[in-house]
Amino acid sequence: MSQRQSKSEEAGSRENERRRTILRAAIDVFARKGYHGCRIADVAREAGVAYGLVYHYFKNKDELLETVVETGWSGFVSRIRAVAEDESSSLEQKVHGIAEVAFEAYRVDPRAVKVLILEVARSPAGTQVVSRQHAFLDTIRMSAEMFSRAQAAGELRADADPMLCASLLFGAIEMGLTAFVSGLVEDRSPEALERAKVQIANSFLHGVLPGAATSSEVSWKQEKASSGTRPKAGKRS
Q1: Are 125 and 65 in contact (CB under 8 A)?
Q2: Which residues, 6+ apart, have CB-to-CB distance to 123 below 8 Å?
Q3: Spatial CA neighbour of 69 closest among 3, 139, 143
Q4: Phi, psi angle pair for 229, to nearest 5°
Q5: What is the residue-averaged pLDDT of the chain?
Q6: In whole angstroms, what is the distance from residue 8 CA to residue 11 CA?
Q7: pTM score, two decimals?
Q8: DSSP, res 120
Q9: Do residues 177 and 200 make contact, with C-beta atoms less than 8 angstroms apart?
Q10: N or C: at which end does the chain have fewer Cβ atoms within 10 angstroms?
Q11: DSSP secondary structure string, 160-186?
Q12: DSSP codes joined into one string, 81-111
């Protein structure tokens, strides 16, 4: 390796490290102040770099948020895909596995998950993040295919819509994580996260596995039939 090539690689490594430092600082500031309360100066101060250096890597705050989403979702989607396409696992195992991926992401980097949920999914600023919309829809479609395969194998109720199943599963996971990142659930210990992911997965599975919701359906139908055949009150004299 030539000396020039070695210096070029070292420079490239420093560039990547600075960019990662700025991106990490942006995640922390977004999580603490929110998208609208965050300024480029805040990110520079958090990263310990000059104000102008942030603009060397990111043209504005919107691009910072977009990059946060791209970085966060790419790893998440690849892990979800690995679970969904594992042919050796049952549907029940896959649903628990997907919940595990989501809550493990929160355990490892709660601030990044907070930004993805509160500043992207539930903020007007998030409507500008095209990559998040595409990645989320791709994840739903991928999971819908998982449910379709399970339905063909008899693991999913025949009357269940695979696309709705995928949407409901991720909706439940997102709302569960929202309870943690917004502070509705104060206990954020590993034990609490374990209980939460199991509860979400089991609650979802009770509605989609064959025969899982039969008892509740029967109860509802019986109640409806009972109310429909109730004798009418006679006229008072």
Answers
A1: yes
A2: 34, 35
A3: 139
A4: -105, 5
A5: 84
A6: 5
A7: 0.78
A8: I
A9: no
A10: C
A11: --HHHHHHHHHHHHHHHHHHHHTTSS-
A12: HHHHT-TTS-HHHHHHHHHHHHHHHHHH-HH
Q: How many CB atoms lie within 10 A of CB 67?
A: 19
Residue with tokens 């994840």, as numbered in its chain: 139
pLDDT in tens, 88-146: 999 999 999 999 999 999 999 999 999 888 876 655 554 455 555 677 788 899 999 99
Give pLDDT, residue 194: 95
pLDDT at position 220:
46
CB within 8 Å of 207: residues ≥ 6 apart: 168, 213
Please choose, from the candidates 92, 137, 132, 91, the residue with its C-alpha nearest in 3D space to the C-alpha of residue 115: 132
Q: For the chain, give the number of residues.
A: 237
Residue that is written with structure tokens 């829809």 in the block: 137
Q: In sequence order, which residues have a C-beta less than 8 Å from that of residue 95 and are 6 or more positions away? A: 169, 201, 204, 205
Categorize the per-residue pLDDT at 15 as very low, low, confident or very high, splitting at 50, 70 and 90.
confident
Long-range contacts for 227-232 (Cβ within 8 Å, ≥24 apart)? none
Does residue 10 register a pLDDT over 60? yes
